[in-house]
Amino acid sequence: MENYRKARTVEQPSLCPFPDLPSSTPEVRVKDGSKIQNLLRFALSRMEEKTASTDHPGPHEGSEVSAGPGENLCHQIMFTGVGHSVVKAITCVEIMKRRVHGLHQLTKLVYRTVQEVWEPLEPEAGLESLTVSRNVPSVWVLLSRDSLDKDQPGYQAPGSFDALWAQALKEEAATPKHGPRRKRGGTGAGRTDGAGRGKGPRKHPGRPGDPRKPLGHAGGGQN
């Protein structure tokens, strides 16, 4: 592929895995450049309390947030993430469940087709454009104040949290922020080389071949 460059990337739309979901349910689309703080500000404003419609934030940088018509306070909200943004979407969901208690969760993992169009660097060489299709994972998480079907795969009751996410937080909290400090210098164990160095008279070795001067003749005069 050294003779090609990526021209554009096209994501094929995928159907919502929740067929009976009302059209007014807000959808938070998490992307690579999305800021978790902005996403949670919007989601919490729709699930915690009623606010004026003028406070409805627009799409944030690096993310797409779409909300259906109706009252600002919702009983359900959906998070979606594709590829590298899957982890960030799950993080938003776990924080939401800790802020808003009593939420039922239903998670669906599907694959979305992404097409990459590659153009030749030198079209006059006779090379044609290439289209590469890849299947990337996509997560859909539905949070609801109302009860959901407990027999559905991916259902989590209120109060249950992702085990891997909770374990990661536990390990991060147990890790000390500053490692043990190493002592500089000293004469501890293992420092045998050079022990006692600096004690006693300092010797100045003469140059090879230079005669040593007799003691008591500092001026170098002749007797």
Automatic annotation (TrEMBL):
Compositional bias segments (type: Basic and acidic residues): 48-63
InterPro entries: Alba-like_dom_sf, Alba-like_NAB, DNA/RNA-bd_Alba-like
Compositional bias (Gly residues): 186-198
Name listed for the protein in its UniProt record: Ribonuclease P protein subunit p25-like protein
Cellular location(s): Nucleus
Disordered: annotated span: 48-69, 169-223
Boundaries of every DNA/RNA-binding protein Alba-like domain copy: 27-111
A cellular component annotation (GO) from this entry: ribonuclease MRP complex
Species for this entry: Carassius auratus (Goldfish)
Any one GO MF annotation of this record: RNA binding
Family of this protein: Belongs to the histone-like Alba family.
Pfam families xref list: Alba
Gene3D superfamilies documented for this protein: Alba-like domain
Keyword set, alphabetical order: Nucleus
